[in-house]
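To illustrate the input format used throughout this study, we show a single complete record. The first block contains the structure-token representation of the backbone; no residue identities are included at this stage. The design step must infer an amino acid for every position from geometry alone.
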């Protein structure tokens, strides 16, 4: 019985690992945007977020030409952190709010941000690589 209890305790400890930056690096296609109460469906092919070791890169095909021009790519330095409840978030340079990196049952990651007016914007994403 002690052996079974030890295995269960080991399982619980392995499930409660603190999120680390490396767990979130990669390229994410943006599938849907929820801005306040309004749901915005977008084409996931050319709308993405990339988290590298040092940059938050946001690419969006605004004119529909299936290419990214220099004005459709935004690169910003960011800081990764974890709040008191172990929720991972990033803080973008020049941005006054946190973007939480949330897990989801259907989507790979939710990028959730509350702006200065109190409006919540959630980006629903699938990890590409």
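Output of the design step:
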């Amino acid at each position: 019985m002690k052996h079974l209890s030890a295995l269960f305790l080991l399982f619980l400890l392995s499930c409660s690992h603190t999120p680390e930056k490396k767990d979130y690096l990669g390229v994410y296609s943006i599938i849907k945007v929820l801005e306040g109460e309004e749901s915005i469906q977008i084409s996931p092919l050319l709308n993405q977020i990339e988290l590298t070791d040092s940059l938050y890169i946001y690419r969006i095909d605004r004119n529909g030409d299936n290419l990214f021009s220099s004005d459709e790519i935004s690169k910003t330095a960011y800081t990764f952190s974890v709040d008191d409840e172990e929720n991972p978030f990033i803080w973008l340079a020049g941005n006054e709010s946190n973007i939480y990196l949330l897990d989801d049952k259907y989507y790979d990651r939710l990028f959730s941000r509350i702006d200065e007016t109190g409006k919540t914007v959630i980006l629903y994403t699938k990890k590409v690589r």
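Structural context for interpreting the output: Confidence is low (pLDDT under 50) at residues 1-13. Strands lie at 26-35, 38-41, 47-51, 55-60, 73-82, 88-92, 98-102, 109-114, 120-127.
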